[in-house]
């Protein structure tokens, strides 16, 4: 199915919708992305209500998720962590896809630019979802949130979070970043064996972000140079690591951020030590 369903008529965009569909990445967004609030859904909670169309013409709903556990992932084409998570999700689907329903929900663009701007209509968002599926060669369902991100906001609008949900609609596990392969594999293994995961949430944070840094230059190429300018203004250290990661093009993208960090630390140490040697 290549054409989006006709959305229900809605009133003019609300202030909440306008804020959700930001045009420029800002420091405040980065700060919010770094932590969940105490009231955000987590392990043991029921999922918020949702009813989303998928690109294949089906529905993904909270009331009828199907007989299998569900791995629900949020992501966008311009999110470096989603870029890092693509191979992880394909590998996990190859391993667990017969026992777990995988669904990626296309959200707002994490880093909109002049080439891939923030969608202003549902039809454009549908097109972005098609591109997201094509780019990552996703072998599982891709659903599309509404233009104001009602489902994304109900869960907590993190760029690339993931939730393992049982068939009754209870959250078993929450991952801050979907490129945390070790955490997700452990949770999925427990779920298919009929057990609750040992932990209700992922420990992955710094490592997940470092793996994503090496994908930032590719996001800039895809979305436009404005993305890099916005990251420099919002998060200079992240932008610097992204720029340094270009020096390590022979490494897999997931390893370039760590290499860039090691280089930067070496430069800072040398700068601090050399004056004492002169």
Summarize this structure briefly.
The protein has 278 residues and is of the alpha/beta class. The chain has eleven helices and seven strands. The mean pLDDT is 92.
Describe the structure.
It is a single chain. With 278 residues, the protein is of the alpha/beta class. It has two domains: 15-203, Glutaredoxin (3-Layer(aba) Sandwich); 208-277, no CATH class. The chain is built from eleven helices and seven strands. The strands form two sheets. It has a five-stranded mixed β-sheet. Helix 3 (80-96) runs parallel beside helix 6. The protein is globular. The termini are far apart. The mean pLDDT is 92. This is Redoxin domain-containing protein. The chain crosses the membrane at residues 257-277. Residues 41-193 form the Thioredoxin domain. Keywords: Membrane, Transmembrane, Transmembrane helix. It holds the Pfam family AhpC-TSA.
Q: Please, what is the average pLDDT?
A: 92
Helix content: 40-55%
Distance between the termini: 68 Å
Question: How many helices?
Answer: 11
Percentage beta strand: 5-15%
Based on secondary structure, the structural category is alpha/beta
* Second-tier CATH architecture of the largest domain: 3-Layer(aba) Sandwich
InterPro entries: AhpC/TSA (IPR000866), Thioredoxin-like_sf (IPR036249), Thioredoxin_domain (IPR013766)
Keywords: Membrane, Transmembrane, Transmembrane helix
Transmembrane segments: 257-277
Domain Thioredoxin: 41-193
């Amino acid at each position: 199915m290549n054409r989006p369903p006709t959305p229900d008529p809605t009133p003019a965009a609300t202030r909440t919708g306008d804020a959700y569909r930001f045009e420029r990445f800002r420091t405040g967004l980065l700060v919010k992305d770094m932590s969940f609030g105490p009231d955000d859904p987590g392990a043991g909670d029921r999922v918020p209500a949702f009813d989303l169309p998928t690109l294949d013409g089906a529905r993904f709903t909270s009331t009828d998720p199907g007989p299998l556990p569900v791995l629900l992932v949020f992501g966008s084409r311009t999110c470096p962590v989603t870029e890092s998570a693509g191979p992880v999700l394909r590998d996990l689907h190859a391993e667990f896809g017969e026992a777990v329903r995988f669904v990626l929900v296309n959200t707002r663009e994490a880093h909109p630019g002049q080439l891939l701007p923030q969608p202003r209509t549902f039809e454009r968002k549908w097109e972005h979802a098609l591109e997201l599926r094509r780019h990552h060669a996703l072998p599982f369902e891709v659903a599309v949130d509404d233009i104001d991100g009602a489902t994304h906001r109900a869960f907590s609008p993190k760029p690339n979070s993931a939730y393992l949900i049982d068939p009754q609609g209870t959250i078993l596990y929450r991952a801050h970043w979907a490129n945390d392969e070790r955490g997700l594999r452990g949770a999925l293994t427990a779920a298919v064996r009929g057990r609750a995961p040992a932990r209700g949430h992922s420990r992955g944070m710094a490592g997940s972000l470092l793996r994503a840094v090496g994908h930032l230059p590719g996001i800039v190429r895809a979305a436009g140079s404005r993305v890099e300018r916005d990251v420099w203004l919002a998060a200079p250290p992240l932008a610097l690591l992204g720029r340094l990661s270009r020096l390590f093009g022979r490494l897999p993208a997931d390893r370039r951020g760590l290499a860039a960090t090691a280089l930067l630390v070496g430069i800072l140490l040398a700068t601090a030590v050399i004056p004492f040697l002169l």
